[in-house]
Amino acid sequence: MPVGRLGSLLHVRPGLALFLLLLPPALWFGTIYLGSLLTLVLQSFYSIDDYTGAIVREPTLATLRTLVSQPAHLDIVLRTLAMALVVTVASVLVAFPLAYYMARYARGRVRTLLYVAVIAPMWTSYLVKVYAWRLILAKEGILSWFVARLGLTGGLEALLATPVVGGPSLASSYLGMALVFLYMWLPFVILPIEASLQRVPRGLLEASGDLGATPVQTFCHVVVPLAVPGIAAGSVFAFSLTLGDYVIPQVVGAPGYFIGMMVYEQQGTAGNLPLAAAFSIVPMLLVGIYLMLAKRVGAFDAL
Amino acid sequence: MPSDTAPDRAPWALKVAAAAVLAFLHLPVLVIFLYAFTTDDRVYSFPLPGLTLHWFGVAATRSDMWAALRLSLAVATVSTLAATLLGTLLALGMARARFAGRDALTVLFTLPIALPGIITGMALLATISLTGIERGFVTIALGHATFCIVIVYNNVVGRLRRIPRSWTEASLDLGASHWQTFRHVLAPHLASAWLAGGMLAFALSFDEIIVTLFTAGREPTLPIWFFNELFRPRNRPVTNVVAVMVVVVTLIPVVLAAWLTRGDEDQGAR
Amino acid sequence: MTPAIEFESVVRRYGALRAVDGVSFRVGRGEFFALLGPSGSGKTTSLRLIAGFERPDGGRIRLDGVDVAATPPYGRSVNTVFQDYALFPHLSVLDNVSYGLRRRGIGAAEARKRSLARLDMVQLASAADRSPTQLSGGQRQRVALARALVNEPSVLLLDEPLGALDLKLREEMQTELKTLQRSLGITFVFVTHDQGEALSMADRVAVFNAGRIEQLDTPRTLYQRPATEFVARFVGSANVLKGRLAERVLGRTGCYSLRAEDLRLVDATAVTRAGHATGTVIDVQYRGAASRVRIDVGGGDVLQAEVDSGRLGAAASIGASVGLAWSEDALIAVNESP
């Protein structure tokens, strides 16, 4: 049977076949994505001419220095970090009951249904969800109406009067913003926690009960520690996505700046690409640190 | 937790909490559907003063909306095709090969969806500015294809792992070349994985805004058009209607994709 | 005449493991050749090397006298019947059989004609339009056979061809494969871990152990004159007497094979000749016509005797003292395996 030259060559050198398969995606990815990440770092070492507004393509630390030396810039970083941490903790707390119920009690069709119910909102248009929250949180919107129906308007007003978290309405307060962040990333947090709880052998829970632990003790000393990798994995999403978002702070929330908004504004209206690049390196670093911490508790085994 | 033992009863507090979280996940989306029919054209008042289909007609006459929709569909189509090709090559290479750095490569390809979108967007913009490329259709599609590769890859590699090695060996043994084996044995079994991966990639591209805001030129994609509308209160009723359309357009392919790949993940779930 | 298959010091490594470790053999044309060994002994890897699914790390493989180092599987006049049959579920039975012909550019009508003829040969022409998923295990195997043979290969490879079938079907297929091979005159190479299968079907058997061939001989020679301790144990399930046991029972050093059916049970008091042993029955396995008796000959050493079930008599009771006798020529000196 005739075999072409290429056929023989690929048979003699199986590594070559693998190389040829991987070459196009690796090349694409290497140039477009990794190449861009490099230019991003490179851009942060450029600066901007104060008079002409043109980018000076000479390596300098000046841009990175303004990032850390200006109190306003530092404020933005800290505000974003604080919001990311609050959202991360809150989303784990809210995600846990549903994840626990799915893993421990749901079976068969109910399980499948719950799964779909968690995944569907994840794939619903991001912008539309943000917009929906604007409708809900608006001063005359659904939430206010509902609170009024419950006769709790006074409580809501007191909450909004609280310094830092409050504001003129939920739609323009950090409280509202955190709520929207929490909502947006919730499915990303539920799924890994559910997956890690799923892997806890039932025998362990029975053994704990058998050894005299109350259900609450079993939960605290067996279930939660075993779910730590899933919690860590889910929290990576909440943390990383909050750090890098700029649509939500723009649409819902208080006037204070966040990293994402700063990046968007610096590259756009301000035209200071080097500073925008420097700002976008911050979430990269923070996520890197967070990933290292998460890795220690086994987050990557849970994914 | 294995499913062979009968589940014990969930405490009622847990049931209530789980139900509350579920409601929290779903009610906001329903709100959008509600508002598309409101007669109110200025404020977000609730309860709705009345119901109307009027705004669907108004939205249909907005030529800028149609242009944005066309661009979004074109970008999603092109980037889905590119991602399908590249993701399939990647999956064919990775499915059974064992080489140093294999796991690192997998992690690398997930970075564009794992890292905040702002980093991908800003990185692409840094390159665009450095190379002086005109922003527009091409730059948007390049960016979208990059983060869609991993979606296609995941679907195709999952399917490839379920195809016994002996099938490809049998094909080669019977005299089919590698290409013929791909065409006559692998492709028929990959078809639904391609369709599913392609639809998810399409939905992801169609809905993407964070990266796109950096890579788009003057012509907006539908999400950018929508984003701009959010700051124009006068057009609010139209925004509501378009929101419903967007939800429907993205959810249909996702539901179809889930249906096409049912069974792929079954071993773990049952 | 050039051999159909020739292995010359072939080596195949997986990392540090030498799956095939310097194997040489020749298979003649029209021969029914078996590769026998326990799992992980290198027999399946050898088969895959012939098919071209694996590449040797050293040595030469020739098919019909031609070095096939650079020939991919689709360039070899070799076809395989896979252990799991590897029928394509998306194609009908007929399309499975005509797959090879079609890929080689044979027209649809001609391919259909030849495929139907092969299906007829395995009595499955009536199932041509069905899906392979609707067939039973035995039927699938026949389709796999037809799919391989329709290409008229010079060598047919069979990987544990009977492994997935139940006992009765397995015995039927043994006869059928043997008849088929005789009538077609094609070289058959088959892999098995079942020594009974290898002995009853093959013209010659290569016994594999730890990546090497221990012995390559006709079934009769393998059984009657095992060359190594491993072959004696694996092929004949023989007793092996060596070291302390050989010295005590035989009164000499070395390593010897003594088949179970060559041991006779005698009255314990009748053992007078030096070298013949006495012991205690610890287990009796009834196997129909014959029974297998395990006898503790002292010091924890156990010998097995295969005895006509009808003449088992009093020896059949566990705990009974028995004598063991054998003729000197039943004792075969073998090489000790590590």
Helix content of chain A: over 70%
How confident is the prediction overall: mean pLDDT of chain A? 85
List how many beta strands of chain C DSSP finds: 18
Can you tell me the residue ranges of chain A where pLDDT is under 50 for at least 5 consecutive residues? none
Shape of chain C: elongated
What kind of sheet is the major sheet of chain A? 2 strands, antiparallel
Output the helix-strand order of chain C: EEEHEEEHHHEHEHEEHHEHEEEEEEE
Backbone shape of chain A: globular
Q: Can you put this structure into words, describing what you see?
A:
The complex is a heterotrimer of chains A (303), B (270) and C (338). Chain A is mainly α. Chain A contains 15 helices and 2 strands. A two-stranded antiparallel sheet of chain A has the order 1-2. In chain A, strand 1 and strand 2 form a beta hairpin. Chain A is globular and about 65 Å long. Chain A starts with a helix and ends with a helix. Chain B has 270 residues and is mainly α. Chain B has a domain at 63-236: Orthogonal Bundle (MetI-like fold). Chain B contains 12 helices and no strands. In chain B, helix 2 packs across helix 11, helix 3 (63-94) crosses helix 6 (137-162) and helix 4 (102-114) packs across helix 6 (137-162). The longest helix of chain B has 32 residues, at 63-94. Residues 1-6 and 265-270 of chain B have low confidence and may be disordered. In chain C, helix 2 crosses helix 3, helix 2 (93-103) runs parallel beside helix 4 and helix 3 packs across helix 4. Chain C has 2 domains: 5-225, Rossmann fold; 237-333, RNA polymerase II/Efflux pump adaptor protein, barrel-sandwich hybrid domain (OB fold (Dihydrolipoamide Acetyltransferase, E2P), Beta Barrel). Chain C has helices at 43-51, 93-103, 108-121, 137-149, 167-184, 195-201, 219-224, 229-236, 243-250, and strands at 5-14, 17-27, 32-36, 58-63, 66-67, 78-81, 155-159, 187-192, 204-209, 212-217, 239-242, 255-258, 264-266, 277-287, 290-296, 302-308, 321-325, 332-333. Chain C is α+β, with helices and mostly antiparallel strands and 338 residues long. In chain C, strands 6-7-8-3-9-10 form a 6-stranded mixed sheet, with helices on both faces. In chain C, strand 9 and strand 10 form a beta hairpin. Chains in contact: A-B, A-C, B-C. Chains A and B meet through helix 2, helix 4, helix 5, helix 6 and helix 9 of A and helix 1, helix 3, helix 4, helix 5 and helix 6 of B.
